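Problem: given the chain below (281 residues), write out its structure.
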Amino acid sequence: MPPSPSVLRQLRAAGLDVRVIDSPEGYKLFLTGVPEHYAAQAQLFIDRSLSAGADENPAQQPGGGHPPSSGTLIQGVYPATFFLIAALVLIHIWLSLGFSDISAWMIVDPRWWPDLELDQRLDALSELLRSGRLFNLLSPALIHFSSSHLAMNLIALYVLGGPLERALGPVRFVASCVMLALLSNLAQALAGPFSFGGFSGVNYGLLGMVWVLRTSAKADLFARIPPAMIYFSIIFALAGAVGLTDAMGLNMADTAHFSGLLAGVVLGWAVREKKGAKGPE
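Solution.
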């Protein structure tokens, strides 16, 4: 007979992509999306889950251990997420030591283009494109103005990035981050001023994707992301969009946050509709 639904829920909640196939030889479990060096450990976890039954937690059996996914906010090892974290840290150290001028990393150098009207901001962006400095469309997302600013964004990237990378794969995850950075940077540049930076626009986009994909076939991957974190962040982005953060004296890139959130919702919806996060059928 097939494994009980509660056992399958346990396995999927642990981050294992398990499919049940009815074959002439009986029911078979197929495990996908787990790195090769974790395969034996994952198989052991499955065997203990099946033998423990629906009413026991196999991770608590004598001699047990944790499966490839621990009980933390994210599970497993995700190379693209940790590459982004390392890159953000190294860039912050590089700029903090004075090896490069942080203004050169902004979308347009605010020393030459201070607070402007919309038509002047459009002229500045047109000049940027004509000069071929396309990296500056992306680079504001890579800079941070303080260590605490960086730390908050690294925590958010750590929590949101791992499950999304597992759902999308490393390449599509990085492509999503690049797209979110471009869209949120351009939106903030059009709203002005040009003196902004930080990964928060991307993180809000990742949060928007998680919000949508929590209703997809891989919803279990996002189960350890606290719902309170999602809803508080959405409320905060909405507060910024209507000017409440400005009224409180908070100097934040509210347009980047809100536009990133919207772009993430759209991307998440597109992925869900195309079954891009569902894995093999």
